[in-house]
Write a structure and sequence with these properties.
Strand order of the largest sheet: 1-2-3-6-4-5
Low-confidence stretches: none
Number of strands: 6
Oligomer: single chain
Order of helices and strands: EEEHEHEE
Strand content: 25-35%
Mean pLDDT: 96
Radius of gyration: 14 Å
Distance between the termini: 15 Å
Length: 128
């Protein structure tokens, strides 16, 4: 079993001192850490609502997957964490733009809070 740490510039790096990586590639799979709506260049939370934040989280996941030799169309499972499920429709509209054909299995849960005050966080498992 091989284990490769994935680190790319097109997505936010782990918070200083935080013991996790953007992703791990092993045995034909890529396990991506949850991505919140941080701008990878500034480290700041993107402005706007849940739609803008969903776009940024998915752009970050896309960059990580590409850095791991995968892509969004190879994602088999996502988990979406939201601070307010009443915004599910807006998140889902954006999500559908990124997963247009044979979307992955998905769980969506409401949580009390997310890092950096984000409204949404998305993690993914993909094939390489």
């Amino acid at each position: 079993m091989t284990k490769t740490v994935i680190a790319v510039d097109g997505a936010p790096r782990p918070f200083a001192g935080a013991p996790y990586n953007q992703a791990i590639r092993t045995d034909g799979l890529v396990f991506c850490a949850g991505q919140v709506a941080l701008d990878p260049e500034t480290g700041a939370l993107v402005e706007g609502g849940v739609a803008e934040q969903t776009h940024q989280a998915l752009r970050s996941l896309q960059a990580i997957l590409e850095g791991a030799g995968s892509a969004l169309d190879r994602v088999v499972k996502t988990t979406v964490f939201m601070t307010d499920l009443s915004e599910f429709g807006a998140m889902n509209e954006v999500y559908a733009e990124y997963f247009t054909s044979e979307p992955p299995a998905r769980s969506t849960v409401q949580v009390a809070a997310l890092p950096a005050g984000s409204r949404v966080e998305i993690e993914a498992v993909a094939l390489t």
